[in-house]
Each structure stands twice: as structure tokens, then as C-alpha cells.
Amino acid sequence: MNTIAKVISLITLSLVVVPCLLYFVGAIELDAVKWAALAGTIGWFISTPLWMSRKLPVDATEVEI
pTM here? Predict the structure, then answer.
């Protein structure tokens, strides 16, 4: 699952970067860049926390001194 989430995260991140570069060289229109960047951003924010999550700290009530 972790590897799949990383691949999806990389693909959606490329959906943000690549259309911007294509627009810079004049290959696609601005509306296509906006929709691709929106889809990439939503996908990235959904997939990235699945593999970048960190362990939660221990609650103070569970610690014995």
C-alpha cells in the first residue's frame, strides 16, 4: 500500500508540474493547465498523507514515571 501511495503521489505531482511547463513552451492552453493542476493538487493532498504519516506521540496519561 505504501508503494502504491508513493507512485500515485508522484503521478499527481507531475500533473501539477508538467502542464505548467507545457504552457510555458506554448503547447497547451491555460484552461487545460488549470484543470490539470487542480486535479493534481487534489490527488496529491489525498495520496501523500497515506505514506508520509508519522507516528503519533504517546499521550501523557499513558506514560508512567
Answer: 0.72
